[in-house]
Amino acid sequence: MQPFDYLLAIQIPVFRDGDRLFYQTDWHRALSLLRESLGDHINRLKVVAPVLPASGPSSHLLQPADSLDIEAIPSIPLDCRAAAYWVKYRNIWRNDVARAAEGCAIGHFACNDNIRTLDLDAFKVGRAAKLMTVFFRDVDERVRIPQAAQALGRGLTLKERVYLEIDDRAVKYCVRHADLSFLKGRSLISRYGVYSNNVHDIADTSYSLHDVIDSTLVERRTASMKGDRPLRLVYCGRLEPIKGVEAGIRIVAKAREAGANVTFDIIGQGSQRQRLEEVTAELGASEAIRFLGAIAYGPELIRSLAEYDALLFTPTAEETPRMIFDGYAAGLPLIGFDIPYCVERAETDAAAVLMPFSHINKSAAVLANLDKNRHELAVAAQKALKAGRANAVDVWYKRRAELTLETLHKSRP
């Protein structure tokens, strides 16, 4: 088969500063790995994306698009309101995707935000252009949205119920019609895998095998846990409400009140940072809880994570974050709320300790018990490192490329 062009059209933004385009460091790396994994099989990787300005507190973490072997195609503003999308920007977006699809053999699509339907519209344009379609989905909204409502102590609103129906139909449509689908986690697989015979699970990692830390470093770190030093926890990700970092802060503060010797470092940036710093101060926990700001994604981040003992993850609803695997690559077990994806990781990897969802006091008791029985985390750290190696990007992108090319050969004999 002759080399072909590959289209990627989803709503992860490209950032613009004058005539220059940039991507966030993690997405920049993902695009680089995708291009590398397909090698000589493709001529061009075309990436159509909505646009945001290259400004804000994390702008220093952006990487230039022209450093990648891709064709970056900026389209409509990502921050447009839903009404503006439907009235003004939808046709522009569809036309941009259609033009980029010319000459392509494969289209890579997702399905998120089914109010402003950028992803679904791009998928339909790809189908109309007769591309082989590859579909990705990483969160089960039928789990996430009810959990978010539960965390707020209420039931679903009418708007949420309507959205869930819209989203469910959109995902079913994409899985049914995609030539190849990748779904993240058992919940999505069990819900939508029945609609196609070519559905596969994904880990969606971005670290390489050579980024995974050496086992001797884990052994040295876990041996030091037997001393009097604090149990060092870390969170690494966006500081947004869905991530539930405030719950993590409250759990750590409550555990310390009960005598636990534990600290918590927070790596990341986001709209909640000021609020989280205020909560930390109000709880009198500023000496034990630090805000380190954002760190560029890459091997240096993995090495930084290796200085800790565990990853603390307390989301307000179902999430499937890549940072769990980044933690594994650093030999960090997961301490997290018992949302379905964390339960899956605990059962699959044996490298997670679960806490009752949204219960601060009970979760603090779990944390205090771990501080007293640190050997549990020491054992889990070795399991985490094993899972980190098994899910490295070398493994994942190789499998993904093989499945993509195999499906293309079947659909384009």
TrEMBL record:
Protein name: Glycosyltransferase
Pfam families for the chain: Glyco_trans_1_4
Higher taxonomy: Bacteria, Pseudomonadati, Pseudomonadota, Alphaproteobacteria, Parvularculales
Gene3D superfamilies: Glycogen Phosphorylase B
